[in-house]
């Protein structure tokens, strides 16, 4: 199984993810040329070598009409300005009455992104930057020469950002607008990462807990806590920590990309690493400011399962069967019963339920509700499974029959669906083994 592991000890941003994933390719320069051929209005992507604490990697630079996002320094003093989104609640208000309610929605100066080198006056910043709403962003992405998968993924990621910005402002998504440079920079990062994920095609993506940074960051309209409101909204449910650096380490773009593409968060699982990509941030710290991507093969040892068991000696067979069906209907991986002798030599039944480890409390509660047991035992185990499981329907002289196939560890198994075999046995007046044999011969033709 191809596993992609993202190490986010210094947070995550769009350009860091873009650089880390591009570093996994045979020819990242060809990918950059492909990015620049997409036709994003005024967007230019450049791959720059970068070194942090002696480690070499890639920094992806995105400019829009020759300007980088960090150039939106409306204070003229190098202080941080969040150039991504603002509220435009009334369509007929004067253009300079936005109150500039900027929020953090991309890679800026914060703790590891861009250092502001430009000193623009407030009026200058607004004289040269257009604004776009979510509809305009969707229209741009929809018109790009990319696959349907990339287009769908990019739209979904940007929607996460827009929803988080809307929540932070307390406004509908339609009233959230984005500065042209910030929005197109984010579109380039999001589309680029979506293209790379399609090209790398990992079977599973795991990321470390995300370091957000801590403290406060100065914005155009005041001082906000870290993580910024939009970032905090996106990262709900994602394991996070403050990390070792004061400042903003995770941007909304980085958070949204992780939230969308990552299957699970936790430590790196056992894998044979084949390639490592380093995506570098802009600033320098005592800690290497990079996001690492590991790509390699991982055996098919699946996430751990919990085996729940209880002994029953005072339930009827009908009640035990009902409890078993309830567990299966609730999504148990397997349910079984076995005869046993209990105290006082009473015949009893062992009821077992196998479920995902994190679902153990729910199934234990269901077993307590559906049986007369006073307690449920839990044993957490690892397991090996045939990971590739597919089903296809094939025409036979008995009608359409579903065939199930499983593969893994050099093993391949295939068999017809038992319900279909049973139907054929009844209709053709055959025994089940004879019907199965006949169907299997048909399926091989």
TrEMBL record:
InterPro entries, A to Z: Ni_insertion
Keywords, sorted A to Z: Lyase, Nickel
Any one GO MF annotation of this record: lyase activity
Enzyme Commission (EC) number: 4.99.1.12
One Pfam family matching this protein: Ni_insertion
Annotated segments matching region Disordered: 106-132
Single Gene Ontology BP annotation: protein maturation
UniProt biased composition (Basic and acidic residues): 106-124
Known catalytic reactions: Ni(II)-pyridinium-3,5-bisthiocarboxylate mononucleotide = pyridinium-3,5-bisthiocarboxylate mononucleotide + Ni(2+)
Protein name stated in the entry: Pyridinium-3,5-bisthiocarboxylic acid mononucleotide nickel insertion protein
Biological source species: Candidatus Onthenecus intestinigallinarum
Lineage of source species: Bacteria, Bacillati, Bacillota, Clostridia, Eubacteriales
